[in-house]
Every structure is written in C-alpha cells, then in structure tokens.
Write a structure and sequence with these properties.
Elements: E1 10-14, E2 33-36, E3 41-46, H1 49-58, E4 65-71, E5 82-88, E6 102-108, E7 113-116, E8 118-123, E9 132-134, E10 137-140
Parallel strand pairs: 1-3, 2-10
Antiparallel strand pairs: 3-6, 4-5, 4-8, 7-10, 8-9
C-alpha cells in the first residue's frame, strides 16, 4: 500500500431523512455510488435535526431513541466492519438549534476496491430487526 497523505480529504455522506415511510426502499436518500481517493476520510453525517425530531414525534415505537449501524458484510475499506451510533429521544439531544451536525460513523479509506455497505436504522425498543436498511456502494481508487 502506498503511503497516505498526512492531510486526507474528508468526504461527507449526508444521511437525509426525506419522509420515512415503510413503503420506501431508500429512506435515507444515500448516494448509490460514492467514489473516494485512497486515504480519504468518509463520514456519514446527519445535518437536519428538525426532520429527526418530527420523526420521533410522528412515529410510534421510537420513543426511547434510535440506533444507526453502518456495516460491511465481507470486506471493508476501513479497519472496522461495523460502527453504530445512538440518538436518544431526550429534549437536550434533539434541539436542532444547538447542533450543527452529527457524525454517525467515520473512517479513513485505507484499501482500494469496491465495497457494498449497509446503513440500518433500529428502534431502541426493538434492536433485533432493523426498521430500514439501505445498501449502497463505496469505490476507493
């Protein structure tokens, strides 16, 4: 593997919440394919907290909070294959005016190749079965 740059490029992948509906295949509106240079830092980022606050109040079963999991089934461009973040449904955690963004997973793309990954959303009341799961690709060149 060639030496990596000391100042890697940061590539944000925004996790947008368009209206989450059980009938949609892609509730997070993730890009289907992302190409990044080896050594780049990839971050899965939530920016619009107002939509998430509405989500908690409009949807049953998410009263206690949610868990995001970014995972790779086989190979990963990172030193990890699974990373999770939690958002608890507490007033201080869901005050959009206090938060600019939340990084739910991050990693430096160390290994070249094309990787299928998943982003799952779980209710903290039922972490056995995800509510939503998207499976896009990352290509590291």
């Amino acid at each position: 593997m060639p030496p990596l740059s000391d100042t890697p490029q940061i590539i944000p992948i925004e996790v947008n919440l368009d209206y989450i509906d059980r009938n949609t295949d892609k509730p997070f509106n993730l890009p289907e394919h992302v190409k990044v240079k080896q050594g780049s830092i990839i971050q899965w980022v939530i920016k619009d907290f107002r939509k998430w606050r509405e989500f908690f109040h409009l949807r049953g079963g998410f009263e206690s909070g949610i868990k995001f999991t970014v995972y790779f089934d086989n190979n990963s461009p990172f030193k990890w294959t699974k990373e999770s973040s939690y958002i608890l449904n507490r007033p201080i955690a869901l005050r959009p005016e206090k938060m600019q963004h939340l990084v739910i997973a991050s990693g430096r793309a160390l290994f070249k190749g094309e990787y299928k990954y998943g982003l799952k959303l779980f209710s903290l009341k039922n972490q056995d079965e995800p509510e939503y799961d998207e499976d896009p690709f990352i290509k590291v060149y």
